[in-house]
UniProtKB/TrEMBL annotation:
GO biological process terms on file: meiosis I
Protein name (record): MEI1 protein
InterPro entries referenced in this protein's UniProt entry, alphabetically: Immune_Signaling-Apoptosis_Reg
Domain of life: Eukaryota
Organism from which the protein derives: Oxylabes madagascariensis (white-throated Oxylabes)
Length: 302
């Protein structure tokens, strides 16, 4: 079925949302729900379909072309298609890297547009933001070096071989700029305050991957980002309201991040003791799977 469905997608236009959206979802489902052996073959089939990749290129570009003010409060068919497109491309990046699959057609992505989509949001639905952050995580984990992707944008187009004295940090973080990093971190912090479960999970995952990328590129910048005083206020905000427990997946993962990078001004021995005490008093067998996994990672890090 991958052959006819992917070929069908390649014959469509981005405006054919009624046909494209379930088709892209079907391709995405095949990548994630099949066996590892079949998964490798599925990736090869999709990456060998040039018309499909050209269609995905057009779909992603519609993220910046379709007017934000026209977006309704609910998820429109156009936005749903964009979500499917970003998630499918993020998955193709992941599995192409895993299996070293041959690439027959590259995708060109404007990094500045991707970052601005998260930084400024422009009334984008939560699910679309989550999908774009999934893509951003994929390229960060691969250090922007995927053979499937060509990165363009103001900073990416600048020559890294001829740095200006004031842009040494930008050169170390290439193709990111230091100002883009700080703006992205502030935006991720602000998105966490919304306390939407799906959004919170995506934001924390994106923040984890970003700091890991920074730590490899420039350790001082990574530690500076991880120790921002605003993070502590953010934790208290997440712990306010009806559910004040530390045993929330996003809170535990944030705490793990701060422990990993030794942000003692954000998380103290007192908070660590409180989490361990809560865990000791909880019925571990009844905790949701996401909470159990996050707690395991936290205790392992401690």
């Amino acid at each position: 079925l991958l052959f006819p469905v992917s070929n069908l997608c390649g014959k469509c236009r981005p405006r054919d949302t009624d046909l494209l959206q379930p088709s892209l979802n079907f391709l995405y489902w095949n990548l994630h729900q099949t066996t590892p052996c079949s998964q490798q073959r599925a990736v090869a089939v999709l990456l060998s379909n040039v018309s499909l990749l050209e269609l995905l290129q057009k779909v992603l570009e519609c993220t910046w072309l379709w007017s934000p003010p026209s977006r309704p409060a609910y998820l429109s068919s156009e936005d749903a298609l964009l979500c499917s497109g970003w998630l499918l491309v993020a998955s193709l990046l992941l599995y192409q890297h895993r299996y070293s699959t041959e690439v027959h057609q590259t995708l060109s992505i404007d990094l500045t547009e991707v970052l601005n989509a998260v930084i400024f949001r422009n009334k984008k639905p939560i699910l679309l933001l989550v999908s774009i952050m999934q893509f951003l995580r994929a390229v960060l984990r691969q250090n922007f070096s995927s053979s499937l992707l060509v990165i363009v944008g103001q900073n990416a187009a600048a020559s890294a071989s001829q740095p200006q004295p004031s842009s040494l940090q930008d050169t170390a973080l290439y193709p990111l700029a230091i100002q883009q990093v700080f703006s992205l971190v502030v935006s991720l912090q602000n998105l966490l305050v919304h306390k939407d479960l799906l959004l919170s999970q995506a934001v924390v995952a994106c923040l984890e991957t970003l700091v890991e990328y920074l730590y490899v590129k420039n350790r001082d910048v990574a530690l500076h980002v991880a120790s921002q005083p605003w993070h502590r206020f953010l934790l208290f905000t997440l712990l306010s309201g009806a559910q004040k427990s530390f045993l929330q997946p996003e809170v535990l993962r944030l705490m793990t991040l701060f422990v990993r990078y030794q942000s003692r001004n954000i998380i103290s021995q007192k908070e660590i003791s409180q989490i361990i005490q809560e865990a000791a008093e909880a019925n571990i067998a009844e905790l949701p799977e996401a909470t159990s996994c996050a707690l395991h990672l936290f205790l392992s890090q401690v």
